[in-house]
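To the structural biology subgroup,

Please find below the input and predicted structure for HTH lysR-type domain-containing protein, which we are adding to the shared reference set this quarter. The sequence is reproduced verbatim from the submission form. If anyone notices a discrepancy with their own records, reply to this email rather than editing the shared folder directly, so we keep one authoritative version.
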Amino acid sequence: MNLTIRHFKAFLAIVQTRGFTRAAERVHISQPGLSLMMQDMESQLSCRLFERTTRSVRLTAAGQRLVPVAQQVVDEVEAIAPVLSQLSEKRRRTLRVGVPPIFSATVMPKVYMMLRRTQPTLDLHIHDLPKPEVELRVRSGELDCGLGVFPRRIPEVSRRTLFEFDFIYLESRTAPWRAKTHGKAARQLRWDELPDVPFVEMQPHMELQEQVNKHRAACGVKRSDGIRMNRLESLIGMAAAGVGPTIIPSFVAPVGMEAQISTALLTDPVLSLGFQLIMKRGREQPAVLEAFTQALREVIADHRERIYPYAAQS
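Predicted structure (tokenized):
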């Protein structure tokens, strides 16, 4: 059965006007078109709804039984329509984003405040989560999108690269092994110039660390086993304390720690890293997503030299 609200409205118009001519005018359809619609309705219900003569239109017993049902259907749909419209508009203005904690702490506050000024009706929900949780919630539909480094394909999820970042070397200013950097515009360090000391690193199975290890091996740099951590924030803290140097993506480069740490862009070659936005495939894109990504791009562009002084231009 494929009856629509239009069928019920047309049926009620005939009942209320007691004729097809005026009913057709009320529902803005031709009289032959209205007759065909009623024939289709009767066919789907397997009964006659009207007895028609040249002078009158009368309801059959089945038609009389249908009147209160049709009226209830029309009333309920018309009552819920504005409610659904408001929900739809709210949904269009709401954005739920999953973000790595360190990115949430350094970049998202500026994005949030910019959107409060430029998009005051945007309802932005920032969820600071580990990457696996971001992936899971994007796939389940709990989040509209996620941000982070996703080098591997994720089932049912599309990826869009927003930025390209580099890797940087970070060490304590009081470290006895201080690396010899070079470069006039910015401190630089070649991969083959990395000091032969134990590094503070992520766990070897983690994607970022796999990329670093692969690149070090390609450059012929031997590794010295050091301390293993699970979070980028821990790498920075340990390196700043003098436990050992570390290698991190430039988008997590700390700000305001110049007295404690020294950083340098790793070069020859520069290793770029894609920072991506992920969404569930087939999901309707929230209307405010482009405003959000534009604000994100502006924050990165405006503060790139201060937040990521060694990031590559994307």
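Summary notes: Confidence is low (pLDDT under 50) at residues 310-314. The CA atoms of residues 40 and 46 lie 10 Å apart.

Regards,
Lab coordination
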